[in-house]
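TA notes. Do not distribute before section.
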Amino acid sequence: MITLTEKAISAVGRFISGSETPTAGLRIEVTDGGCSGYQYGLKLEGSHTPEDTVIDYGEVKVFIDPTSMPMLDGMSVDFLDSIEGSGFKFTNPNAAKSCACGTSFNTSTEGTGTKTCS
């Protein structure tokens, strides 16, 4: 299961209500890339697929594809809003290594080498 904090739910709700296209929820996915091997992807989606795990937070729905789910299971997502900037913060128990940027991770302690964030 993936947990969104109240701040994250509120932020996603604002993004959905401000969207110019019909939006059914937020897709959270893992893709190759980033400083540590994998990176988190977030995007608003008009619908989910039958294979997706759907997590219902009332007005906010989260969609996770079956390939990403094992790497995200147990993760918590928060939304930080400070003078230094704002954005989502991922706390992922499956991440053996994470980059300082906070959006890139690796699930293996022996995997790819960490690169410099840009």
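Switch to the second chain here.
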Amino acid sequence: MARVVVVGSINMDLVTLAPRFAAPGETLLGERFLTVHGGKGANQAVAAARLGADVALIGAVGDDAFGMQLHAGLAHEGISLDHVARIADCGSGTASITVAEGENHIIVVPAANARVTPAQIERAQATLAKADAILVQMEIPLEAVEATLRLGHRLGKPVILNPAPAQPLPIEWLKLARYLTPNQHELAILLSAGPAEDFLTLMQRSPAPVVLTRGAEGAWYRDGGEPVHQEGFQIDVVDSTGAGDTFNAALAVFLHEGLPIAVRKACAAAALSVSKLGAQGGMPRLDEFNTWLARQG
């Protein structure tokens, strides 16, 4: 059983389905409202746990009703929450999502996620020291991302940096990551490149090895040599939400089997996740994943 530590955000997604987007000042009747557990950190922790890993999560929730629900949901998945802080004077992170006309509008309020600190990362050193892989994203303060990269590197642990939402980062930080896992758009932003630059060229000039996701096309990966393509898996798409988080989680879970195998399994897990509704709702469990993958040949 792989040991995976995830450092990242925990959100409650507030989803409204509507026939169209409301104009400024307009009140519009919606069709449906859902509260869905989310946040990239929580999503990746859940996906890793369902794929059979021993998972610990480092993050923060507020001392509110959402915080209680989010904490309970993560505990139900068997995730260690010893380093998930409960912030007394703050609400939990939320994403207000309106879905209409095949598009979505999203407003994220980080709230407790903005309280994740380098000191909190340092306090989790004993947990990080036991990890086979560490996952971190960028929905928490950048100083906490940096602290995770530095501590993981110091401990000799492979840190997978999922640079989303993307922004340029110091080259020094990127060199501390064992792998970067952007899509093409995120890689360009991360390296302050122009939108016309070829992603294969960007992969080769990245200061850290890149595993680049390409949706239905699969992924490209490079770890010292020329970029290698892993084809995607064909499946009927119901909801692509959470596919990237499932990919990252699977990459961390199976990394000990070697990068080519881990990337293939990450593409497979991401494909399987889009066959069901919802980010966490579509994340496969290990027995389901193994059965499905065996049928792919």
